[in-house]
Amino acid sequence: MSIALETVLAKAGLRVTPGEFLGLVEDAARRLSPPNPNPAEYFSADQRETLTEVGLDLRPRRPDEVDSRARAVAAQAVLRDSALTVSDAATTIGVDTSRIRHRLAAGRLVGWKDRGGWRLPAWQFTGSGVLPGLETVLAALPIDQPPLVVAAFMTTPQEDLLISGEPGTPRQWLLAGGDPDRVAALAAVLGTPA
Question: Domain of life, per the record (predicted)?
Fold first, then answer.
């Protein structure tokens, strides 16, 4: 299993040992939710009755069901492993570490506090700088969106961002010189009901 996992991690470009990656997965799973939550416990009796009446299944997951947390846990582990430290980000864009912290505080970069300091998702950087139009997009994001949601948005093709006739990701759109206001308009509605 270790060789297969090493191969997958190498193909994905993740600089982590299989043991470290499995530790990240375990940590992400622990943070995400209990292993087998009983959804009914989260609601009052009246709420359970109403939700059941409209067709929601509030039973705990069966042992033979796929754990719905698996995709989110894997995505969280990859996001954490591929994120840059403040020092890495400073080196990438050629500034002092204090400038990175200042940009984080001002909302001009996105990141989260983790063991050992700030972590900055790699999607917001290019080989030699910051993603063009990033500040415009970040200014439009609702403040309650977690890094995983923002990363998924920035790396998922959007029908409204056509590049050579094909849907592109917001990151690809910005790298291709696309209007950041188009991405900002899409980002502004993250987390709102469709």
Answer: Bacteria
Cβ proximity of 174 and 133 under 8 Å: yes
**pLDDT attached to residue 172:** 96
DSSP 65-78: SPPTHHHHHHHHHH
Alpha-carbon distance of 83 to 8, in angstroms, equals 18
The Cα–Cα gap between 189 and 99 comes to 29
Q: Above 90 in pLDDT, residue 160?
A: yes
Q: Which residue has the tokens 């409204």?
A: 160
Question: Strand 112-114 to strand 117-120: parallel, antiparallel, or no bridges (unpaired)?
Answer: antiparallel
CA 96, 109, 192 angle in degrees (round to 5)? 170
| More reliable by pLDDT, 166 or 17 | 166
Asked whether 146 and 159 are in contact (CB, 8 A), the reply is: no
Q: What is the pLDDT of residues 20-31, one digit of tens each?
A: 888 877 777 776
Residue 42: is its pLDDT beyond 60? yes
- Burial of 157 from C-beta contacts in 10 A (0-12 / 13-18 / 19+): middle
